[in-house]
Amino acid sequence: MYLKLRSVLNKATLLVDSELFGTINRNMNTRRIVFEEFGDPVKVTKLVDDKLPDSIAQEEVIVKMLLAPVNPADINTIQGVYPIKPKLPSSPGNEGVGEVISVGSNVTNVVPGDRVVPLQTNGTWQSAIIVNSSNLIKVDKDIDLHTISGIKSNPSTAYRMLKDFVSLNEDDVVIQNGANSACGQNVIQLAHYFKYKNVNIIRSRPQPDLENLKNHLKSLGATYVFTEEELRVTNIFKDGTLPKPRLALNSVGGKSATEILRSLDNGGIMVTYGGMSREPVAIPTSLFIFKDIQLKGFWMTRWSKQNIGSAEQQQMYHELSQLMKNGYLVAPTNKTVPLGSFKQVLQNSVSTKGFTGVKYFLDLQK
Amino acid sequence: MYLKLRSVLNKATLLVDSELFGTINRNMNTRRIVFEEFGDPVKVTKLVDDKLPDSIAQEEVIVKMLLAPVNPADINTIQGVYPIKPKLPSSPGNEGVGEVISVGSNVTNVVPGDRVVPLQTNGTWQSAIIVNSSNLIKVDKDIDLHTISGIKSNPSTAYRMLKDFVSLNEDDVVIQNGANSACGQNVIQLAHYFKYKNVNIIRSRPQPDLENLKNHLKSLGATYVFTEEELRVTNIFKDGTLPKPRLALNSVGGKSATEILRSLDNGGIMVTYGGMSREPVAIPTSLFIFKDIQLKGFWMTRWSKQNIGSAEQQQMYHELSQLMKNGYLVAPTNKTVPLGSFKQVLQNSVSTKGFTGVKYFLDLQK
Questions:
Q1: Cβ atoms of B137 and B117 closer than 8 Å
Q2: Bridge partners (DSSP) listed for residue A198
Q3: Which residue among A125, A323, B10, B99 has the highest number of C-beta atoms inside a 10 angstrom radius?
Q4: Which residue in the set B281, B288, B298 is minimally distant from A297, CB to CB?
Q5: Cβ count near B344 (within 10 Å)
Q6: CB contact under 8 A, A282 and B284
Q7: With an 8 Å Cβ cutoff, are A285 and B272 in contact?
Q8: Which residues of A are catalytic?
Q9: What is the mean pLDDT of residues B112-118?
């Protein structure tokens, strides 16, 4: 009730003393994961109870965090091996979804009760955060929490890679390795929605897992799913079943990257956005010279920094949200763990290097 | 005298019967190298005497060929390992310079006595050729024959690579490996002319050859010359001596390519146009993702096909010719061999795989 009144007051006047409203934070607590040094995530992180500051500024918003994905980049950040190193002590977590609790007197884009996704933010792995209102996008409450919480990274990466490198038409072909990763699954779903044929490469594995995975990816919209060995011998690009791919997406590196490169059409582009095999990409020089193949890279973090608040960014979030709402984009197979059990997630993420097949989420209110 | 009269007649009327003038070719001979199968160049080639056809068409020109460079692509074409395979029997040779002997009745761009470079032509390794007049550019007789004869490949490759991939400003830095190749030397001379700082990587070799080569490249305009080992430990990009390169040119592949890649500035582009080491280019995925490095390829043959007769092509040849005339571009260290001794050149080209340090030219009138 008090919150509702506040919201009305905020809208009524922007000249009101923000310090007055700042007092509402007094005694509000947050549980947060923090690390004071870089290193083994299991060892350097701890869960602490903190008071939120007594007041918030006129442009700030208090968000009760609901859910946050655990991304490989979060693990690498704690390890100190990610190119962006936060000042220590720091709280991990680069994305998530929450609910607005209260807003500063100058805030006009959200009101208490709104569901929001924070954009440029470190430290989403806590039960409440204070952020600048310009750093929030309001999202529809109808959208599945797991799906929307990850909108900033994997769905956005998949979207940009399909849009920004090659001008694809319906029935053009895109090929990707690491197709069962969270981002790979988004690539399949978006390519299916955009009506691009998509050829998906996965590592081999024993049956029935292999067949189950293939069926799962096909259910998401995969046109073809091959193991690396199957790609080497397939004739679909030779017998006219499919045109050669004009775009390849590489999140693996090593031989896997070379194989998808070899299938590319003349003038095609391979975009590298990950290197799960930890091996470099090796390219015969003839592919550059005589086939005019191009290799580029993509890093969502760079794109987001260069496009904060741009029309393109707004359009992308709008389109992705709609696809999530209508079920075209769904979260990867996942497991949700209470914030209090975060060490279990970190332990698992470090030991499997992300090759789990299951994406972890933290429930930040448990 | 007769030729002069013909030229006057040609200019006087375009309606004259071309068959009349066709008769002048009767009994004109050409000595040409031919090969009837792909294979070892020394074995599959022979020198034959041929009559030129009795008549030429209205748009055709007879060119007495003077000089032709021997390029690695020529050797690979005879071997059958080049991506473009001519119909057999074929005459090798993709560039050269000659003198117009006679012209068909519709020819307006050249007259007998003009010095010309044939463009899209196979078979320059012969003493006389018949080509369509649109396939000739007239060049200044003041320009050194060795230098102008190669204008289509190495100087043009160097020009396009410096112009088309990164918008460089004065004092921007370009780095290249294989810097002592014919094309590498053109890159140095053009970069020097355009006032780009250029860092040149060569393979190590015993003294005094190493110092002599460094001095030679510096005399052409090299800002720095390093061996691959020296590049690995130099501090010039770290201590502020030079900005990091925005463009890298790779004609070697393998470790050499990886080393010049590592020196590139964020967002830099490496252009591959050769692979002398026969080893693939290996790139850590992090360079793509976090440094936004791009890899592209360049093949002069493709560019020329896509830009036949374009304003860009004309501008390039004009500019390069002027630079040759004024001494900014000079031919690489070379040795000229009579057409009759061509097997000696082929033997040498095959056994050294181009790593000679001396470029061979054929004197087509000896």
A1: yes
A2: A174
A3: A125
A4: B288
A5: 13
A6: no
A7: yes
A8: 82
A9: 97
CATH architecture, domain A154-302 = 3-Layer(aba) Sandwich (3.40)
Q: Which amino acid is at A301?
A: T
What is the tens place of the pLDDT at every residue in A174-186? 999 999 999 999 9
Locus of tokens 């004609």: B251
What CATH superfamily classification does B2-150+334-363 receive? Medium-chain alcohol dehydrogenases, catalytic domain (3.90.180.10)
Q: Chain A contacts of B286, Cβ < 8 Å?
A: 83, 275
Decide if domain A2-150+332-363 falls under CATH 3.40.1280.10. Answer: no
| Interface ipTM | 0.85
pLDDT score, position B333: 87
- State whether A284 and B274 contact (CB < 8 Å): no
Per this entry, what is the length of chain B?
366
Phi, psi (deg, nearest 5) at residue B151: -60, -30
Closest CA to B86 of B58, B119, B120, B60: B120
pLDDT tens-digit map of A292-341:
999 999 999 999 999 988 999 999 999 999 999 999 999 988 999 999 99
Asked if A285 reaches chain B (Cβ–Cβ under 8 Å), the answer is yes
Pairing label, strands B97-103, B115-118: antiparallel
Of A145, A35, A49, the C-alpha closest to A90 is: A35
Q: Quick check: A280 and B280 CB within 8 A?
A: no
Q: Is pLDDT at B18 greater than 70 in this prediction?
A: no
